[in-house]
Design brief:
The chain is mainly alpha-helical. The protein is 61% helix and 0% strand. The protein is built from 9 helices and no strands. It starts with 13 loop residues before the first helix and ends in an 18-residue tail after the last helix.
Length: 199
Amino acid sequence: MSGTTRIPATEITGFKGWMIKRFARKTLGGTVPTSIGVYWHHQQVLMDMASLGRKVQKWDRCDEQLKSFAHMAVASRVGCTWCLDFNYFEAHNLDLDMDKAREVPRWRESEVFSPLERSVLEYAEAMTETEPTVTDELVESLRSQLGEAGVLELTAVIAFANFTTRANVALGIESDGFADACGLEPLARPTTPRLAVRS
């Protein structure tokens, strides 16, 4: 659950704040994310990031489940408990394969993923490394299965995931417990220490 953020959350005020809280409670099971209070210190940053997120959600040239798993893989790799929890919660709302979604943090050890899903998860991790470790062979494999537009969309989604997860980790924004609140099984724990999810 969310602890103390590095920039304290401030009160979300005014009519715009009331609308944002109302929308958040309606879509997130009655919860207003801690991150909104943190970003309320700079409302233009908050609104522009939310606007970009909405645009990303409208892209439709790559399978939604693949993109969701890719975002979760980035979150697990970076250690962003907020994004990992939120995307697990969203996978439930989108009626995605929850047996697979809960296994994303330990995808290398798990046997539930298809070869394509494993390639997508590998790509998400390879893009997230510093320096990135993406190979020609990996991109060509994805291109043959997803097409050029699909790979471009997947790449942009992973880049966006790095943008949001790294910001959350830097600011100390952790899980708000969305998955717990709707009774989902706990996410699987990776057996490899370097992929361990912070609690």
